[in-house]
Amino acid sequence: MSSTEYDGFRCWSVEPHHSKPSSTVMYLHGGAYVNEISPQHWDLIGRIAEKGVRVVVPVYGLAPQHGYTAAYRMLADVYRDILSTTLPSAVHFAGDSAGGGLALGFAQTLLGTGIPQPAGLVLLSPWLDLALQNPDIERLARTDPWLAVPGVRECGRSWAEGADPRIPQLSPLSGTLAGLAPVEIYIGTRDILLPDVLLLRDRAATEGAVLTLTVCSGAVHVYPLTPTREGREASARIVGRLAVGAR
Q1: Distance between CA atoms of 11 and 175, rounded to whole angstroms?
Q2: Pairing relationship of beta strands 54-58 and 9-14 according to DSSP bridges
Q3: Do residues 246 and 21 lie in contact, with contact meaning Cβ atoms separated by under 8 Å?
Q4: Which residues contact residue 229 at a Cβ distance below 8 angstroms, ignoring those fewer than 6 apart?
Q5: Count of Cβ atoms closer than 10 Å to residue 17 Cβ
């Protein structure tokens, strides 16, 4: 494992032990934009690397000291460097929760710039609307054991740096979907982010974007990272999906 610094922020590169990687995943960790990368993230990252994939992990700055503008600058630099050695057809973006929203928002910023999309995006419970405006969220909040709406909203306000939370860089649910790389999403039914994911699915169908959705009954937020039967099954599927380019 090696690291590079981008404007003072660390970016790790996790390489396979026994083979030269033929594909790359850029993984963006969750944590409501205020929490550091966790052991659960590193476990999934390590399992992906074991399948012959290089995993690039930008450790973007966290709120309240940092916000979305610095993160997007960092991702642009990291992706540029990835493309200097790897074809876009051998690159995937992946992320969970806040990192999933950030991955999708960053992919949207590439549209119309001439910078190619990656081969695809794999997102775990992505946070798609910073302000959690969907009225169905309040109903689900009663059964979500992990996320509390007021706290999540406060984290979002801090991350936004005073910007309108509806802009696509903060709420990719409001951004363009046509022309995006194929998106694959995993989410549980006990997750307050589910209503917005369902809206994204419907918008993708309307705009002609490719979106594959797995909804796991009874599962909690970012369930593929949890030590449960459904979590292990989903994470194995995700690892296999991201390893396809390494074969």
Answers
A1: 26
A2: antiparallel
A3: yes
A4: none
A5: 7
The pLDDT of residue 245: 53
**Residue 184 backbone class (left: φ over 0; alpha: ψ -120 to 50; beta: rest):** beta
- Indicate the pTM of the whole model: 0.96
Q: In this structure, are residues 187 and 125 in contact, taking their beta carbons and an 8 Å threshold?
A: yes
Instruction: Show me where the domains of the chain are located.
Output: 2-246
Could you confirm whether domain 2-246 is CATH 3.40.50.1820?
Answer: yes
pLDDT in tens, 120-168: 999 999 999 999 999 999 999 999 999 999 999 999 999 999 999 999 9
Q: Rounded to an integer, what distance in angstroms lies between the CA atom of residue 68 and that of residue 159? A: 6
Q: 96 forms bridges with which residues in the sheet?
A: 124
The pLDDT, as a whole number, for residue 125 is 98
Beta strands in the chain (DSSP E): 2-6, 9-14, 24-28, 54-58, 91-96, 120-124, 183-190, 211-220
Q: Taking 80 as the threshold, does the pLDDT of residue 33 lie above it?
A: yes
What single string gives the DSSP state of each residue in 110-171?
HTTSSPPP-SEEEEES----TT---THHHHHTTT-SS--HHHHHHHHHHHHTTS-TTSTTT-
For residue 53, the tally of other CB atoms under 10 A from its CB is 26
